[in-house]
Amino acid sequence: MKIKKYPQVTFSKELDDDIIFLKFTESVIIDVKIAEDLIAKRIEFAENKDHYLIVNASKSTQGFTRGAKELFRHPEIGLKNILGAAFIVNNPVTVLLINILIKATPSISSKYFSNEKEALSWVKKLKESNKTG
User: Fold this and answer.
1) Which of 12, 64, 85, 92 is the most buried (most CB within 10 A)?
2) Which residues pair with 112 in a beta bridge?
3) 81 is in which domain, residue-wise?
4) Where is the DUF7793 domain (predicted)?
């Protein structure tokens, strides 16, 4: 397993897989600076290759600034190399925030879940349908 820890997030993945897990380790308000940093770290961790993303936001964001939302939705910046994304959320505020991001990025398949098992199952089905589709 490949793991990279940073102050606000941890990235992990199986060595031979294209599913990246991003887990927030603290609750933050994501502004443009943090968004740019997270995007750069994700792309570096993925070695600039296409991948699926499972974001564990259960301990995460208190919110996003407008600029951060725009960065995350941008096809050549925030969405770069992402084939699909699942979000793990466990409180109504985070569900609302993630739902806004999902609805604003219809160019990739994304959905939110209450646990990692459901999120991973959905991503695996998405991968399979992308192979056959």
Assistant:
1) 85
2) 87
3) 2-132
4) 15-127
